[in-house]
Design a protein that fits this description.
Elements (H helix, E strand, L loop, with lengths): L15 H15 L11 H8 L3 H13 L3 E2 L7 E2 L4 H6 L2 H7 L3 H25 L2 H16 L4 H17 L4 H13 L1 H7 L5 H17 L3 H34 L1
Antiparallel strand pairs: 1-2
Length: 250
């Protein structure tokens, strides 16, 4: 006979809107309703599931945030295909919490390096002529914006975005967009020091040249060096700012 430990382990009752979300997701997952199909009206959903309007609206809002439906004013709610951006966006709250701590920032820096070094290697091995033209265009725009720090930060993101586009994988695009957003403070801080724009551009130029030469090992190594330098600049500036603030308050 199996003995069950007599510890409290209450079964939680789901809230009404969660039940509605689960049932609509089951219909989507089973293919009974497909991307492009319209859901019944709020009133019809209330009758179908036997719940009030607040539960239906909360369920639709939850499904919208998760990327399963699109809600338009005055129109029916349509089922859509979730994108990588929706998946990553659902992690944003937790990501920003982690980024509030130095260890969390370091973990994201490590994740970015692992991801982007792989992109650089892949680009050197598989980039097409069209990919290379886009990369050179992004590099030129990056160079032209060196004297405008705000614009340079955006062209920095755009250069790395081209690399994320090369594998033609929508999840990679979503990951790149998320990391770029989550580490935006790092980028602006690291580029705030005089001369950092020039250093970053030179790194981009060398990475692009290695990709053009189809030297995967070199492209990966140069990307690793570039991201290490960015991280180092960020921590040096952050430490200086903290020390200045401490001196000011003492």
């Amino acid at each position: 006979m199996i003995s069950i430990p007599l510890k409290k382990n209450h079964i939680k009752r789901k809230r009404l809107y969660e039940e509605v979300v689960e049932r609509i997701q089951q219909l989507i997952n089973s293919g009974e309703i497909r991307p492009g199909d319209s859901l019944p009206s709020e009133r019809e959903l209330m009758e179908i599931y036997g719940v009030g309007r607040p539960a239906i609206r909360e369920a639709l809002l939850t499904l919208q945030k998760a990327g399963f439906v699109s809600v338009s004013r005055g129109g029916r709610t349509r089922v859509i295909e979730p994108t990588a951006e929706h998946i990553v966006e659902s992690l944003s709250t937790a990501a920003h919490h982690w980024l509030g701590h130095p260890e969390g920032v370091k973990n994201f820096q490590a994740a970015r390096k692992f991801f982007e070094c792989g992109l650089a290697r892949y680009a050197a091995q598989h980039a097409t002529e069209d990919d290379l033209q886009l990369l050179m265009k992004a590099l030129q725009v990056n160079k032209d914006s060196m004297n405008n720090s705000k614009l340079f930060a955006q062209t920095d993101v755009d250069f790395h975005y081209v690399l994320a586009m090369i594998p033609k994988n929508s999840i990679f695009k979503g990951i790149h967009a998320a990391i770029s957003e989550w580490l935006i403070d790092q980028r602006h801080t690291a580029l705030s020091s005089p001369g950092e724009n020039k250093i970053a551009y030179q790194a981009h130029k060398e990475i692009a040249e290695a990709i053009f030469k189809k030297n995967a090992d070199l492209a990966e190594s140069l990307m690793e060096n570039h991201l290490d330098q960015v991280a180092e600049a960020y921590w040096e500036i952050t430490k200086s700012q903290e020390m200045a603030l401490k001196d000011q308050n003492s």
